[in-house]
């Protein structure tokens, strides 16, 4: 498998990257980043691309990949619905549409969050926007697509969040990590990476994956 990863400068994307690098079934990884990631490995190539609303300039470099693990995202805190929609929906649609036109047989995975609103009509702004984004991807026509909806995520292998507040919370909760990892509502950065890879190698009937579903998918050998 050859995989594209977005959001590798963040905690979840970096976690997925580390698992892909270590997995012998993953031959090649292409990172699409807005800012350079200080990471070097023979499997890994990086493209710095600033405008995620338009991928036409790098379209030729996106050919030949089997999967996309779209881990890029931002917190909705302090954002208007218009701005959050631009980053979450518009940019994701630009990426998904470009990749679909190149290779409709691709598996496209998207990291959303627990509580995402598939009806697109709820009162919570971020949940509506992410629900609309999920529905757009699932209706795009890819060979397969999975919506990853982690709730609490325990960071492993030294990965850190790009949000300072989250890192502060992780410092406080670190003594409880071993207990948290046994909870069905909690997953880890490693399990998300393993589940992403396994979703390509083992087709699943369930397309919306909550934390417990992610953990079960991660365990498949």
Fold and architecture overview:
The protein has seven helices and nine strands; from the N terminus they run E-H-E-E-E-H-E-H-E-E-H-H-E-H-E-H. Helix 2 runs parallel beside helix 3 and helix 6 packs across helix 7. It has one domain: Rossmann fold (3-Layer(aba) Sandwich), CATH 3.40.50. The strands form two sheets. A seven-stranded parallel sheet has the order 3-2-1-4-5-6-9, with helices on both faces. The protein has a two-stranded parallel ribbon with strand order 7-8. The longest helix has 22 residues. It is α/β, with parallel strands linked by helices. Helix content is about 40%, strand content about 20%.
Comma- or semicolon-separated keywords:
221 residues, alpha/beta, seven-stranded parallel β-sheet, globular
β-sheet strand percentage:
15-25%
Order of helices and strands: EHEEEHEHEEHHEHEH
CATH class group: Alpha Beta
| Quaternary structure | single chain
Assign the CATH topology.
Answer: Rossmann fold
Fraction of residues in helix: 25-40%
CATH architectural arrangement: 3-Layer(aba) Sandwich
Q: Largest sheet, described in full?
A: 7 strands, parallel
Q: What is the distance, rounded to the nearest whole angstrom, between the alpha carbons of the first and last residues?
A: 16 Å
Structural class: alpha/beta
> So how many helices?
7
Radius of gyration using CA atoms only: 16 Å
CATH superfamily: NAD(P)-binding Rossmann-like Domain
Compute the number of strand runs: 9
Q: What's the overall geometry?
A: globular
Q: What is the mean predicted local confidence, pLDDT?
A: 93
């Amino acid at each position: 498998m050859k995989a594209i990863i977005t959001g590798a400068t963040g905690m979840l994307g970096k976690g997925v990257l580390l698992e892909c690098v270590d997995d012998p079934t993953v031959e090649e990884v292409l990172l699409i980043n807005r800012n350079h990631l200080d990471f070097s490995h023979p499997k890994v190539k990086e493209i710095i691309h600033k405008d995620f609303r338009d991928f036409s300039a790098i379209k030729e470099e996106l050919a030949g990949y089997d999967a996309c693990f779209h881990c890029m995202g931002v917190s909705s805190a302090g954002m208007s619905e218009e701005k959050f929609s631009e980053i979450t929906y518009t940019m994701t649609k630009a990426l998904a549409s470009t990749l679909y036109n190149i290779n409709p047989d691709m598996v496209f995975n998207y990291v959303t969050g627990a509580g995402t609103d598939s009806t697109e009509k709820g009162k919570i702004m971020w949940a509506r926007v992410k629900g609309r984004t999920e529905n757009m991807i699932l209706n795009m026509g890819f060979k397969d697509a999975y919506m990853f909806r982690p709730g609490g995520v325990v960071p492993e292998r030294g990965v850190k969040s790009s949000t300072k507040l989250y890192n502060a919370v992780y410092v406080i909760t670190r003594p409880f990590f071993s207990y948290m990892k046994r909870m069905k509502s909690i997953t880890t950065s490693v399990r998300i990476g393993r589940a992403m890879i396994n979703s390509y190698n083992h087709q699943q009937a369930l397309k919306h994956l909550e934390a417990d579903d992610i953990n079960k998918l991660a365990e498949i050998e």
